[in-house]
Amino acid sequence: MPGDVAATALPAAAPPPPSPLAEFWEDFRANRGAVAGLVFVVAIMLVAIFAPVLAPYAPDLTNESVFLKPPAWQAGGSWAHVLGTDAIGRDILSRLIFGARLSLLIGVVVVTLAILAGVTLGLVAGFFRGWLDTAIMRLMDIILTLPSLLLAIVIVAILGPGLMNAMLAVAVVVLPHYVRITRAAVITETAKDYVTAARAVGATRARLMFGEVLPNCAAPLIVQASLGFSTAILDAAALGFLGLGAQPPAPEWGTMLADAREFVLRAWWVVTFPGLMILGTVLAFNILGDGLRDALDPKLKR
Amino acid sequence: MLRFVLTRLGLIVPTFIGMTLVAFFLIRLVPGDPIETMAGERGIDPARHAKLLAEYGLDRPVFVQYAIYIGRVLHGDLGKSMITQVPVLSEFFALFPATMELALGAIVFALVLGIPAGIIAAVRRNSIFDQGVMGLSLTGYSMPIFWWGLLLILLFSVQLGWTPVSGRIDVRYFIEPVTGFLTIDALLSGEKGALRSALTHLVLPVIVLGTQPLAIIARMTRSAMLEVLGEDYIRTARAKGLSRLRVVALHALRNALVPVVTVIGLQVGVLFTGAILTETIFSWPGVGKWMIEAISRRDYPVLQGGVLLLGVIVMAVNLLVDITYGIINPRIRHAR
């Protein structure tokens, strides 16, 4: 490896150390799986952005003459509908392409909500300690004790089914992870000298919290956010499958599976492809998250 | 030891109270009051509405209502289903054995495959087998199990015709419930073919529900084994001439299994979550399907009671795992 050569043959004048970003990229690039995950994630993002250009049909365009058409390579299929059509003649490929938008939207919204609320609660718990800390952490323990999807299901059942409520419910369920990570990082960081120094020169509490400590908690939060995308997409799809998430005719992949369930006996393609998209996307985010963790956290480096 | 157990018991009291608070207030988030909900779309006249409110204590301050609620809960009264009028607790325990059978089957499936796979992967680190196990484990962990269930039905029930699509046993058999575990009851009944029927109904749901725990357990066993295999005492054991098999099976495995036991305990939550989806796909008459049906019927007492009961069970299992861990590992017991 070129890195080894550079390390052994130390030149007289040491070159400037690589920037943290370059160093991170060097570590990340070495992990082939993680790069593959990243490529897949970027591809899904592009598909989501350019959905109207890429999709051959509108996602909810029904066509009575072509319902339950098999994929192109199977007898009875045609290249007009590459992945076949569903029970009311909608093009499956087009629905999957537009579904990418929903899944990424779910990931972004859930992770953003969970980070905003989780970081705030974690900072408060870690900085102020005392009864506030106890109360917050107890509540998080309770959320963690209840089976995650069950809690999400109950929240949606009460707020009413729909994509917005499903995202909210999943955000609540994943919240404890962000709170715990932030709190733990805050407690370790505040004991360090640079924080004491900042405090000594008179930095305000808000400045300590957001200016000094928070940037140093970023690495574990980034990893959690990437893994959080996969949890969000998976849980929201499960809610969609149970009829509690995005409502038909939205081309959300889990919701598509719920529609397809009754045709499992005669049309394998309506069940197979949406699930494959969920699996692929969730897997990509998980691999990416693992790769980020390995690259960002030197303690876990193999 | 007693002190350790008592401290752990003491710690679950606030968690339990918190859980009752969550169960109590979640239901209060439903728009409209419970009487209106019960009346449904027919509506209710104001006089009767007020009378019923008073009867259920719903006109009192919220914390008094909560006190009444927790008093009832402690006496085992979780209210009645709004649809069947059967107490929630008896409905729950009538259905729980079915979920339990499924969950036990799933965890056995996960252990039987996951622990050996994890051990071999660790011993043959970076081999093709190791990479295969890790890849499959990541896939299993990312699997939308509701889709996985449909795929298995597609393959084994539709294409090959090996297994039935749904239910717990063929309708031909009527098995007297003794233990509530149909496989055992079928065996006890002595009816020909009943056990076979029960088992073929069980196998696909067990695989579906066991997939995520299997992925987690294989991964966890591998990393625990890798850690232990790097320890000095392993090198010592090898140096004094013990066979590789003996070192792995006796010295390493025993120590590696300690964290694995904890992970197994933590799977209870995963299993209940998965049971909701698995039971829905396979029409398995357990607690998960019951709760999903309660949602579509807006049967709030069932939802409230079900969440609390499942939460309490998870809490109890976590407590058991904690205590077992303390017994296996004295360092935990004496830590403050």
Would you give an account of this structure?
The complex is a heterodimer of chains A (302) and B (336). Chain A has helices at 2-8, 20-29, 32-49, 51-54, 92-128, 130-145, 148-159, 163-190, 193-200, 205-216, 218-241, 253-260, 268-296. Chain A has 302 residues and is an all-alpha fold. In chain A, helix 11 runs antiparallel to helix 13 (268-296). The radius of gyration of chain A is 24 Å and the shape is globular. Chain B is mostly helical and 336 residues long. Helix content of chain B is 76%, strand content 0%. Classes of the chains: A mainly alpha (302), B mainly alpha (336). The interface between A and B is large, with 43 and 42 residues.
How helix-rich are the residues of chain A, as a percent range? Answer: over 70%
Shape of chain A: globular
Give the mean pLDDT of chain B: 85
Second rung of CATH, namely the architecture of the domain at 99-264 and 274-300 in chain A = Orthogonal Bundle
List how many beta strands of chain B DSSP finds. 0
